[in-house]
Amino acid sequence: MPSSSKLSKKEAYDTKLCGLLDEYDRAFIVHADNVGSKQFMDIRRGLREHSAVLMGKNTLMKRCIRIYCERTGNDTWAALLPSLVGNVGIVFTKGDLSEVRTQINKFVVGAPARVGLVAPNDVIVPAGNTGLDPSQTNFFQALNIPTKINKGTVEIVSDVALIKAGDKVGGSEATLLAKLGIKPFSYGLVVQQVYDQGSLYSPNVLDITDDDLMSLAQEGIRRVAAASLALNYPTLASIPHSVINGYKNVLAVAVATEYTFPLAEKVKAYLADPSAFASAAPVETSGGGGEAKKEEAKAEEPEEESDEDMGFSLFD
């Protein structure tokens, strides 16, 4: 049987967790491997204004959430249960999800390579002078790292991939990295899932901007319009295109026949005598101002070729 002290701690934890479930409606599931107590204190201090960090045993968190859902009838938080696996915690928040995630990612600290640790990323030792004396060359030779002696110190000839992601760190690698003062790994809370009012999704969704959504919506509208036009099936997306295409067809008939209507009259007049819609070109005069006149003529050229100066618009 658990002691009274353990029971009281579990009851206090349940009270705290249920209070957070009542107060917040958004949260992050975060992975917390290799995060130290000092780092946790910094994270809590940095997020205190709008968020709360809760860690605990997975079985206890699951039990508290299940009982809370049964007692309150609010089963939206039950979406968290499948994600409470491994060394994870919950960051409850009232702030903007993207901004809070950015703040969480700021609390990352470098860590040395320890013997037996599984490398989370590749480790590459850069070429250059190490500052070590020639008596330290045995470490480099044991790891097949090409070196040379330069001005009484060991110099690495070229970049070397020392450890691959997923490999365990050996004693020689850890000793060498420590001698070189390299902290190849970094640790912090890693956001795994985002919870928002009953929905659970990947944190990559937070990278989607309003411009991305707008471009996706426009692309969808274009595809619907194209399909509608190909199938001769009118939709809100295709109606503007259908109206313009219909106008073009009627205009083509009017130009090819004697039939006319107000919008077609200007087109017919222009086709019959384009010169009537052209402005008179600037006259070049001799004298010292000739070059200035040429520059003025060039500057006015685009205006002469615009549709407005032709005196008509297709939709007047």
TrEMBL record:
Gene3D superfamilies assigned to the protein according to its UniProt record, in alphabetical order: 3.30.70.1730, 3.90.105.20
Gene Ontology terms: cellular component: cytosolic large ribosomal subunit
Entry keyword annotation includes Ribonucleoprotein: yes
Record field: compositional bias (Acidic residues): 301-310
GO biological process terms held by the UniProt record: cytoplasmic translation; ribosomal large subunit assembly
Keywords noted in UniProt: Ribonucleoprotein, Ribosomal protein
Ranges annotated as biased composition (Basic and acidic residues): 291-300
Presence of the UniProt keyword Ribosomal protein in the record: yes
All copies of domain Large ribosomal subunit protein uL10-like insertion, residue ranges: 113-182
MF GO annotations: large ribosomal subunit rRNA binding; structural constituent of ribosome
Pfam families xrefs: Ribosomal_60s, Ribosomal_L10, RL10P_insert
SUPFAM superfamilies (alphabetical): Ribosomal protein L10-like (SSF160369)
Region described as Disordered: 280-316
InterPro entries: Ribosomal_protein_uL10 (IPR050323), Ribosomal_uL10 (IPR001790), Ribosomal_uL10-like_insert (IPR040637), Ribosomal_uL10-like_insert_sf (IPR043164), Ribosomal_uL10-like_sf (IPR043141), uL10_eukaryotes (IPR030670)
Role summary: Ribosomal protein P0 is the functional equivalent of E.coli protein L10.
Family the entry assigns: Belongs to the universal ribosomal protein uL10 family.
Protein name, as recorded: 60S acidic ribosomal protein P0
Biological source species: [Myrmecia] bisecta
Lineage per the UniProt record: Eukaryota, Viridiplantae, Chlorophyta, core chlorophytes, Trebouxiophyceae
